[in-house]
Amino acid sequence: MVSGGRIIIEDRIESLGQEPQRRPSWIKVRAPTGETYKWLREMMRTKALRTVCEQAMCPNIGECWGSGTATFLMMGEICTRSCGFCDIKTGRPEPLDWLEPERVARAVKAMKLRHAVITSVNRDQRADGGAPIFAMVIRRIRELQTGCSVEVLIPDFKGSIEALKIVMDARPEILNHNVETVPRLFRKVQPQDRYEWARDTLSNAKALDHDVLTKSGIMVGLGETMEEVKSVMRDLRDWRVDILTIGQYLQPSKKHLPIEQYYTPEDFDEFRRYGLEIGFRWVESGPLVRSSYHAEKQVLALSELYRE
Predict the structure, then answer these.
(1) For 281-299, how does the pLDDT look when each residue is reduced to its tens digit (9 = 90+)?
(2) Would you identify the CATH topology of the domain 32-306?
(3) Predicted confidence band of residue 22 (pLDDT cuts 50, 70, 90)
(4) If you write DSSP's letter for every residue of 182-225 in order, what string do you get?
(5) 3-class SS at 284?
(6) Range from 47-61, 84-98, 254-268 carrying the lowest mean pLDDT
(7) Helix, strand, or coil here: 90?
(8) Do 104 and 49 form a contact (C-beta atoms < 8 A)?
(9) Where are the domains of the chain?
(10) Which among 175, 163, 168, 189 is positioned nearest to 81, based on CA atoms?
(11) Category of 223 on φ-ψ map: left (φ > 0), alpha (ψ -120 to 50) or beta
């Protein structure tokens, strides 16, 4: 699994019993190591916390954890949706843990974070989708870690503006919801989601608070075309999204959707160029880019809180 200090993803796929595909040379990441990484991993265990870094098998875990940053995953480890790209379990989740926001906020304080990223599984069995948990953790982080900005990567809440308002009333600096793929592939990639729900979530966030930075992300390599990706990018700008992330889809296991295409670094450069051309304030585009990659840099560069 580890070769020359790097994790080669095709080796991990082979260990799962799937015939390995030939991976481009740029699809490699460093093995997670270092004292900060070890300390953070131990803290997550002892405080009964979860991170999407581990649950979603993020390729950047070594870099992010090594620098003392992480994306907290709230509301359990079981999701009510069954997206074809995601390695998080699907089923009926346990009741919400109303003490979890306190634990997350204390972890943020222990890490001395300047920017905290919070996400969750889907909780479709609740009319509010678990929105109060997001509001609680935003407010508690503000109380315990003064000056820390908060980014929430939220579900679509089935387009509910009432649930979204619960989150927005807590005033996150960044409201993130990933569209993930192009409309043509929604039923295949995320069968319980709707493109219209993503539209409503992102556009309503701006309507509720015009100062919030909105953000979304797209995976490529699932069978979409370059023009379809650019069409989604134009939609996101129409919804007044400020920040965009684009990364290569990597198959978590043989049970998940196959990789249809590898995009080149030059392709990702083209996405970034086009995104800035049509008005995004920040575009993070690269083979291993994920939704929270360089999140702190984005808010430092763009938020009014950090402008002189």
Answers:
(1) 999 999 988 877 666 677 7
(2) TIM Barrel (3.20.20)
(3) confident
(4) -GGGHHHH-TT--HHHHHHHHHHHHHH-TTSEEEEEEEE-SS--
(5) strand
(6) 47-61
(7) strand
(8) yes
(9) 1-30, 32-306
(10) 189
(11) left
